[in-house]
Amino acid sequence: MRILLADDHGMVRETISAYLTTEGRAAVVAASDYFEAMKTLEQKGPFDLVLLDFSMPGMNGLQGLTDAIQKHPDQAFAIVSGTAPNKIAHEALEIGAIGFLPKTMGAKSLVNAVRFMIAGETFVPATVLADGGATEESDFAKQFSQREKQVLSGLCKGASNKEIARDLDLQEVTIKLHVRTVCKKLNAKNRTQAALVAKEAGFE
Q: What is the dihedral sign for C-alpha 124, 129, 131, 134?
């Protein structure tokens, strides 16, 4: 994964870069403001993902995102913020961002979210989705069949294969196959990780 991270706070840049490098084995290029980010993108892009801090110099709110998408329409952008209200996340998605990452996310959650976006999906935390936007959840869900969504819902509730099979009136071996397919689609090692990724994407 090649990622461009733009943030004006050195400690934040170093922390997120370390997460993505050690946990995600990503190659991270850092920039300290919007202008440096755009210059880096022109010189070294495209990247698998560009992470832009909402409040750094040069962003001018979401105007910077709008300009960046217009100049680089084939580049994937996501907003990173520790203070922006939930409505900013929804507006960013409407403009064309593929995700919104709170700076409060843990290392593993952050890496999972980045992988999810690089895979072509939209990522917004469930807490943000709960405030007026459910379209991103359907973007996540549409990669699954109806039965797979039912099984994934069971995983999110912590149900066993036997319990899910009983609830759906199916054979346990059938549920096992669906769990395997769901994990493969989410690039998850096991059912617990699959449930974690789904919850972080706002799936219930």
A: positive
